[in-house]
Structure prediction request, 375 residues.
Amino acid sequence: MVPGEYLRRAGSGRIDPRTASTRLCRMPQPDFSALGELTVVSPPNGGHHAAPSDVMYPGGPAIDGGLLAPGDPLPENAGPGGRRPEWLKVRIGTGETYASVKRVMRGEALHTVCEEARCPNMGECWSLGTATFMVLGSVCTRNCGFCAIDTGRPPVTDWDEPRRVAEATTQMGLKHVVITMVARDDLSDGGAGIVAETIRQVRLANPETSIEVLISDLNGREPDIRTVVEAQPEILNHNVETVPRLQRTVRRRARWDRSVSVLTSGRAIAAEIGHHEMVTKTGMMLGLGETWGEVVASMALLRAAEVDVLTIGQYLRPSARHLPLIKYYTPAEFVALRRIGFEMGFRHVQSGPLVRSSYHAAEQVPGRDAAAAAS
Prediction:
């Protein structure tokens, strides 16, 4: 079905996620790890988790995403006391590979969005030897209502950071690297120069490594978007984060149209310089008060803008100071959205409760599946 048809039928009841959720919940001991969009890490000795104490809330119980402030509503589908439902509990990272990644990051004095944003997949990804580098420091000039990254006046820009990211990529043996950034409205180019230089340094030291960048909106400035695209990343990613109606509430200094223009402008620049294989990508989080129809309509708008890859995950409240969580979406609902996304024509859709923007990012590189099959 074409995106326009989904816009017309978004609220028509074509999919009833409640029915799908009921079917899923009736299964004995449901194995959510069977769903391609969701990974549940099993205990080291195999089998099932014997008790809730065998798993950790991402980030730890003290900052549980179900944390309720006085007067907050109880999130839909929440566990007892507003706790997260069982499908959102994961083990923390362990093992030598996990420890090795942490040593490399600390040795190179680098930041990861995995840690700064308290990503629930950090244990899984680090145990696999992958991570997302965050350049331009760890202090953001914006104060979005959902984000756990520190806000304030950033320190002096570290111009050696691109070299250290490239060196860490080599030490970790990464085949695909994700480079993200804090918003740097204090810089004349918004940080685009450092991002572009990081792409160049990583490619120089690791010519076989594919590169994805997750950038801020750069205030919509075409010259700064051009700076990044001309460094030729394989994937250009910028997240719209939520549906159009909630933009001002969730992203106080951002706009839907400007975010989409980052991707459309980037695509046009890539075509102009002959970098036709570049993929455009965006992501949304659910649970902030959007409706099902708004989610589907937003997906249709993104596809109409020729966005290639979409990630959809669950909003997890970092603290009581952040935006309240309205609903926990079920795994069945995420599966339904993944199917809808493919029907709309997205090249790749990652949709699941624990999905974040960089989750399984290597699978989204053009030709990666073909190359793996040939090797």
Remarks:
- Residues 11-66, 108-118, 370-375 have pLDDT under 50 and may be disordered.
- The first strand starts at residue 111 and ends at 112.
